[in-house]
Task: structure prediction
Amino acid sequence: MAYVVVMPRLGQTMEAGEIVEWMKSEGEPVEKGEVLLTIQSDKATLEAEADYSGVLARILATPESGEIPCFEPIAIIAAPDEEIDVDKILTEFRANQGA
Result:
């Protein structure tokens, strides 16, 4: 099952962040709790850990994406060899978020 990775809220006042660097590339394995990316907020640069284990199937936002609102999709983690339909996954994610 594929999981959507969102821009985390790394502080109570954080409303958006910018991706500084992905620690993994698409297709690489990811372990829950492993540092997945570095994020710049208005106050600090912080590391964000993966909430799921699997493979980084798709990166949806990059350092060039600029400021991204908290809880906006930034990547998809899937099971190894899982075929993913990005549009379908994001449509279902947004439907479940009430968007």
Remarks:
- Residues 3 and 77 are 5 Å apart (CA to CA).
- The chain has a mean pLDDT of 93.
- Residues 3-97 form a domain with the OB fold (Dihydrolipoamide Acetyltransferase, E2P) fold (CATH 2.40.50.100).
- The radius of gyration is 13 Å.
